[in-house]
Amino acid sequence: MGERVQKALIIGGGFAGMTAALQLQAQGISVELVETDAGWRSYGAGISLNGATLRVIRQLGLLDQFLAAGAATDGVHMRAPNDMIVAELPTPRVAGPDVPGSAGIMRPALARILSDAVRAAGIKLRLGQSFTDITETADAVRVTFTDGTADSYDMVVGADGVYSAVRKALFPSAPQPQFVGQSVWRAVLPRPAEISTVTMWMGPKLKVGLNLVGAEETYLFLTEDRPTNDFVAPETQLATLKGLLAQFGSPIVRQLGADLHEGSQIVYRPLEQLLLPRPWYRGRVVLIGDAVHSTTPHLAAGACIGIEDAVVLAEEIARAPDLTAALDAYQNRRWERCRMVVENSAKLAQIEITGGSREEHAAIMKQSMISLAQPI
Length: 376
Ligand SMILES: Cc1cc2nc3c(=O)[nH]c(=O)nc-3n(C[C@H](O)[C@H](O)[C@H](O)COP(=O)(O)OP(=O)(O)OC[C@H]3O[C@@H](n4cnc5c(N)ncnc54)[C@H](O)[C@@H]3O)c2cc1C
Prior knowledge:
The chain is an alpha+beta fold. The chain is 36% helix and 28% strand. The chain is built from ten helices and 20 strands. It has an eight-stranded mixed beta sheet, with helices on both faces. Strands 8-2-1-12-19-18 form a six-stranded mixed beta sheet. A three-stranded antiparallel beta sheet has the order 3-7-4. Flavin-adenine dinucleotide binds at residues 11-17, 34-37, 47-49, 130, 159-161, 165, 184, 269, 289-290, 297, 300-304, 306.
């Protein structure tokens, strides 16, 4: 596999896949992207991002658009039940001295920024399609699509998320995502006047937080320990989330509970994790993003490491002598950082589930932030 990659297929148009498409096309590679959702929508409420994510968004040339659509602030405020700020955790300005160290944006807004860039770059899109077969030949990968057409590529990138079909095709006995014993509730609410940056209240077992996703709106997240990942009927969700918020003594949190209504975009999701041991590629097919490392959101870094994967993959494709060397270098550059995010996020979840040491929780957060600030 000594020749240069000239034609690549990305399977999955999430944050990781869109970034890979952009970065590879920018090198002169002819890129196609296949996305199963015909509307190419991004679901869910807001998304919290750390300074390292802003660094990689800046590297993509999309920071101004991001800042116009979302919000960036410094530090995390920890508040006591009476709403007094009891601790201020620093968030390093990883993207540069002029960019705050933490951010929030509505998921569809971030997806739109990336998908607009993909369309503007002229990347060929196959929306509403997937693959039915991937077969490696002597000098290419032959992919058959659900519309019955087929084509050959020098490289295929599987960026199809936590339940990746590409991962299953490549590694049928790979581990499956595991429920961690905790779920997250999310909602979008008007910004309370007292809130100026990411803010959290730690209950004995519940944690609730707010993050700004624009000038006027905040995204609320609440983690709850649950022994099983049972379905929660949508018609019960508003009352259940109000009940959970009522368990907090904080007047701000109680007001949020009172303000919640049917239109608050409530999303309930059991938390799962997956860390695929290396290899992350076979032959000419490579996996990136949640397909190889799906983390719980405790470090607000899932999107970050997926986007970074795409950047690193493109860098290694550009400089390695051949494809195998590039894919090997990619997985080895990414492994330790992604392992740290998945495992430290899981440790934070366990401390919250068991009502464990707040000091240990803060120490893991701080150490992880320092690690994430390191160059990729
Ligand atoms: C509840 C929750 C909260 C989170 N909060 C945060 C947060 O605050 N901050 C953060 O940084 N991260 C957060 N994350 C993690 C973050 O959302 C993910 O890490 C990130 O979205 C992964 O991006 P991805 O592109 O790898 O996968 P995905 O976003 O899952 O994208 C995969 C894409 O592939 C498409 N697809 C799937 N199968 C196929 C197929 N067979 N063929 C073609 N297309 C296919 C899908 O439609 C989708 O568009 C959270 C995750 C969860 C579950």
